[in-house]
Structure formats: C-alpha cells, structure tokens
C-alpha cells in the first residue's frame, strides 16, 4: 500500500531536515517540504511523524541466528530474530554462516539460506564462514560469491572448532583479494586462550568470572595484529568484528596507518556492559559470557571515543542467543562450557540512542552512520542505509519522547533472559517499514511474516 509520512525530521548520516516522504511502492518516490495527500495514489496510508525522527532502516551486520555452537544451538529462529530486530528498528540483518570444519561450504550456504528464506520478516544477507580451506572448499567459495555473497568470515579463536589455522587464513585472504570480497574476522589468539583456560581450570578457577582473565585484552590485540599482518601481505580488505578494547582498536589503527584496508566494529554489549556483570554471584554471570569478553569499565569510554572519532565504523550486536536455564548452565562446572553470546538484536538501537545520543556521547549523524549507513557501504547492501529518492523504503519513525523498560517478559527474542533486564530506554521506534510495508508499530510486530528477502550486494 502506498505510504505518505508527513511532518517528520529526516536524519541521515549527513543530513537533518524537515520534509514529507512518499513511497508509492517498495522504494522512496518523493521527498518534499509538503506533499498533498491528494497528489498520492488513492488509498495511500498517511502517518503523521510530527515530533519524531525518520531514520533509514538500521542494519545489524553481525548476528547469529542458526548457530550450532559449543554443543548446542542458538535459541532464535529467523522468525523470532527478525521480528525482534524489526520491533527494535533493525530492518536488515547479516548473519554469519558458521559451518563445522567437516561441512562443505556450499551445503552450509544452502542450509543457512533455507532457514531465512520465506521465514525472515526483515531483509537479510550472509557472511560466508570459512572454517576449512582445500580445493573443494575453494571451488565452492567461488560459487557462493557468484551467487551474490560478497563477504567471508573467519575465526582466529575457537581452536579445534570454528577457528582457522594460518595456512587457511592466508589462502582465504588471497582468494578474497582475487574475488574482491571483504573478510570479516573474530580476532583472538586461539592458542593463548586455550592455554590460559587450561591453567585456570587446573587451578580450580571454574566460574564465569574467569572467562575474561582467560582472554585478556592482549590476546585480542595480538589477534588483530595477526590478521592485519596477513591482510597487509595479501592485500585483502578486512573487517574486524567486535573489538572490545582500546588495545585492539589501536592495533587496527596502526595497520590502517600502514595502508591496510580495514574497518572496525564494536558491538553494543562492549559499549554499555563491563566485566563486573560476568562476576555476578550465583552463576548469574553466565548470562554475560561472550567473546571477546566484557572488559574493565574504563574501556567503555575508550570505545565510545573511538566511535565518536569514527575510528570505529559500525555498531553491531553479535546477537548470539542462548537460554540461561537450559543452555548457559551447561557451563556450571567450567566457564569454558558456557555457550558464548548475549542476545541483543532487539535492543541495539534503543540502547545506542539512550546511552549514546541522549548522553551526548555521539550525535545523531554518527548514530545513523554507525548503525546503518556505514554497514550498507562496507558490505555493498544495495538500496539500504540512506533516505533518498530511489532508495529502499526501509524507514524508522522514531519517538524520542517514549520512556520504557527492557524485560525478557516483553521482548520478542526467544531467550528466557535479557542482559538488560529493567534498563530504561529513552526513545523507541513508533513505526518501522521494510520496502514500504509497515512491519512494526510501538513495540509490536504487525508485518506480513516472511516478507524479508535476500539483499542484492554491489
Ligand atoms: O560470544 C560470542 N561472540 N558468540 C558468538 C560467536 C562469535 O564469536 O561471534
Ligand atoms: Zn566472534
Ligand atoms: Zn559473532
């Protein structure tokens, strides 16, 4: 149905102005100071956005939905995760395909695609996880790129599971360079992690509070240094996922200043949570186990500062949803068995707005750039990340006057807990559209199920 949005304040990564906006179909067709409803198609739906912002649909370039991991499966489906994303203002997701080392890449690609296709309510794409490198894998990776996937994912962590060795890393980067594909990477030195984990467990240090000491900042900075050395030698473009600390960002910036093509991501939990959450008594800390781990509180200021200066390009979530009662508890005897991840796809925008924009740590343009436009540009998401005539009508009409609290009782994610239980939010999407169709209103999913489609990549 055609849609006319009147009286809104349009905010993009670069612009800030009042205008009316008309979408005759899936793309934005007119932006004007005042659009007369009589000039629109008969039956056009009209939304009054007075007092509200209109942002481009937000993009989360780092989520896990179908994820076989650490002896279990992540809890969300594309149905639950996409609804949660939309209610929270995120209209496009990029999921990491994470095959086991024994899986063939093409079979994994088909499996991950089949989980989203016809099920996801929001638009989506994938980073193709490379967990092995041999002749067969290389041929299949070439085929997957031909099918429109323009990014790979490698893990320098998770020894013996998802992690690649240096030979695999080298050849993945060389192939990526040849094909013009960007490589996203989880950077932690897997050997240092494995050795430190073994030492801690042997010393009887088994609780969630020992997760951070098992992978301290230097372990992450070393991983970043390692990746950038390989990127420099191969000429590949890389994207460092979930940097959690000043040391890792500085290592990346040193590489960039040498000419390495690299972008830096931070994820929401590292901006607003610190390691004392993982130290909560009674095993509650397990709710906050993710990798890289939550850091010392002083790191938050450093990460906000890198975001403000735009050294950090994007804010994602690394949404990796595991239940507390039945899944996190798998690690009661050893923190190394707690499934890693914090569910957050629903909360990213409201918490980034509340703790970033409302506190003055970032301005509205940085907010839009980091949570939408930059990801669209880095990953070539055609039609996404901006508000302009011809762009996809993915829009978030945002109410800055809303006040509310986050709770697992009301969230749309499938997990039995929220890492942000009781936290206040100052602002919420009042309407969210994907290609001109209204998908969420005031905290409720209202869209047609399965509306999402695979995003064409440039
Ligand atoms: O703790 C995390 N990050 N879990 C998901 C897998 C990953 O490393 O991205
Ligand atoms: Zn990771
Ligand atoms: Zn991840």
Provide a descriptive summary of the structure in words.
The chain is α/β, with parallel strands linked by helices and 458 residues long. The chain has two domains: 91 residues, Urease, subunit C, domain 1, CATH 2.30.40; 321 residues, Metal-dependent hydrolases (TIM Barrel, Alpha-Beta Barrel). The chain contains twelve helices and 19 strands. It starts with a strand and ends in a 13-residue tail after the last strand. The structure holds N-(aminocarbonyl)-beta-alanine and zinc ion (ZN) (2 copies).
Protein traits:
binds N-(aminocarbonyl)-beta-alanine, nine-stranded mixed sheet, alpha/beta, 458 residues, binds zinc ion, globular, Urease, subunit C, domain 1, eight-stranded parallel sheet, 2 domains, TIM Barrel, 12 helices
**CATH-level-2 architecture of the largest domain:** Alpha-Beta Barrel
Number of helices: 12
Give me the Rg, rounded: 21 Å
Tell me which ligands are bound: N-(aminocarbonyl)-beta-alanine, zinc ion
The CATH H-level superfamily of the largest domain is Metal-dependent hydrolases
Shape field: globular
Question: Into which percentage range does the β-strand content fall?
Answer: 15-25%
The overall pLDDT, averaged over residues, is 98
For this structure, the CATH topology of the largest domain is: TIM Barrel
Helical/strand content category: alpha/beta
Q: How many structurally independent domains? A: 2
- What's the β-strand tally? 19
Separation, N- and C-terminal Cα atoms: 28 Å
Portion of residues within helices: 25-40%
**What is the CATH top level name of the largest domain?**
Alpha Beta
